[in-house]
Amino acid sequence: MNFFNQWGRFMMMGARALAKWEIDNSNTILRDRKRLALLGLLTVPIIIVGVAFASEFVEPIGKIMPDVLGGHKAYSPAFYNTFIFIVSIAIGMGAGLITGCIGAGGGFIIAPALMSAGIKGILAVGTDLFHIFAKAIMGSVIHRKLGNVSVPLAAVFLIGAIIGATIGGLINRVLYEINPVLSDAFITTVYAGMLGFLGLYAMTDFLKARKAAAGGAVDTGAHGGKVEGAEMGNLPKKLQSMKIPPMVKFDFDFTPGGRGISWVFLVASGALVGLAAGIMGVGGGFLTFPIFVYILGVSSMTTVGTDIFQIVFTAGYASISQYAIYGFIFYTLAMGMLLGSLLGIQIGAMVTKVVPGITIRGFYAMAVLAGFVNRAFALPAKLGAMGYLPISKGTGHVLDTIGVWAFFIVIGCFGVWVIGTFLMNIKTLKGEVTS
Fold first, then answer.
1. Helix axes 300-317 and 151-178, enclosed angle (nearest 10)
2. Is the dihedral of CA 92, 98, 101, 102 positive or negative?
3. Residue 37 sits in which domain range?
4. What is the per-residue pLDDT across 30-84, written as a single tens digit (0 to 9) for each?
5. Beta strand spans in 177-253 (E)
6. Where residue 175 falls among pLDDT bands split at 50, 70, 90?
7. What is d(CA 233, CA 165) in angstroms, rounded to the nearest whole number?
8. How many CB atoms lie within 10 A of CB 60?
9. Which residue has the higher pLDDT, 225 or 13?
10. Do 259 and 251 touch, CB atoms closer than 8 A?
11. Residue 54 — φ and ψ, nearest 5°?
């Protein structure tokens, strides 16, 4: 039980660090007219190209360049119409509302949401990675935070991250070539495990916080919780005491002479983060924070800057080298999600000013658990289709439908509640902004 609480706390801290990065990126993009203009210019041609690919040119390109782009099979899930683009904006907004309102990563729901909308798993992963990369590139010029990057630490970490992302992308592509259903089942299983663990911890944390609030304790808020990682635990001390050369030095501003860690542990950590990015279609930031702070013993300040740095390169490398060149990115969906998430993050962040933090934490736990139910209920049908589970098509379809409806109802209700709360409190929020 202690391990569950410890690792759950680590993942939650990582999710919060990742959400802070997304909120900062959103603010950087929306407060800069040049970036907004660039976003508008990027959106129009990508939508036009998406329509052209889906309506006329998919088959010819699949025949002309099958080895370069993955052929017709890779593009086959990328059917496009106006409804799908609207759905992509809604999915991005839902993730943005969770990120902005709760202060914990809402990106966890994107790949499950895309798969529930009928997008094949490998395409959902590639598209999510490209969406993260596009957001990182547009909002990455945040000099205050990049100033905290330890270049040696980041460079060695990225060696492992590139290796891990390559392996993760290769696993997804090989499984897809063997059987697209197997690929979907694998990605679904990974997401079900991760969301189940994080959701159970989030719900436990919410129930404890509610009990404490009922007993008169102060609610720390949605984004609350003490800043951790200032002191090293026993594990980081043991790892830093292992002098396996070459040693990488960092945190000179926090410790006389700095701290040091062997390159072996950095490369291994980077490989784990890159593997998660390559398989799940996430930037890996939700893992970087707990690994750096609680396992390697890096200060929180250095971790935040290095986390931003690695997301740009890890997501960029994985999305381009492992998915884009094989045709596994749905660009119209990615741009729709980017537009929706930018708007959702802003609305969600403002709602935190007028809503008790305990309420928001409860919604977050429900959202993550809904993602878990969605993927867990989708798995039997996929296993049945491959002959690994004795289940009828009808039963599998019913379970899958229940998971899809449960997921979208919870996320939809959350979205309606947040937007409704925002609209009803516009005057109050205006007063806070102008004061």
1. 40
2. negative
3. 2-434
4. 777 776 676 666 666 555 555 554 444 444 444 443 343 333 344 444 455 667 7
5. 247-250
6. very high
7. 29
8. 10
9. 13
10. yes
11. -70, -30
- Rounded CA separation 262/246 (Å): 6
Distance CA 26, CA 344 (A): 10
Question: Please, which residues bridge with residue 259 across strands?
Answer: 250
- Extract the tokens encoding 309: 């740095």
Rounded-to-integer distance, Cα 414 and Cα 195, Å: 18
Number of domains, the chain: 1
346, two tokens: 């802003």
271 contact partners, CB below 8 Å, separation of at least 6: 160, 161, 163, 164, 167
Two tokens at 177? 């070539």
DSSP 3-state of 413: helix
Tokens 């969906």 found at: 333
Residues 6+ apart with CB under 8 A from 300: 227, 228, 229, 230, 293
**b (16+ CB within 10 A) / e for 216-230:** eeeeeebbebeeebe
Give me 86's structure tokens: 């609207």
Entry pTM:
0.79
* CA 251 – CA 257 distance, rounded (Å): 8
| φ, ψ dihedrals at 377, nearest 5° | -75, -20
Would you report the helix, strand and coil content of the chain in percent, each value rounded to 5?
A: 80, 0, 20
> Over the stretch 262-293, which tens digit does the pLDDT of each residue have?
999 999 999 998 998 899 887 666 677 778 87
CB 365 within 8 A of CB 410: no
List, in sequence order, the alpha helices (H) in 318-424.
331-351, 357-385, 393-424
Tokens linked to 17:
């660090």
Count of Cβ atoms closer than 10 Å to residue 54 Cβ: 17
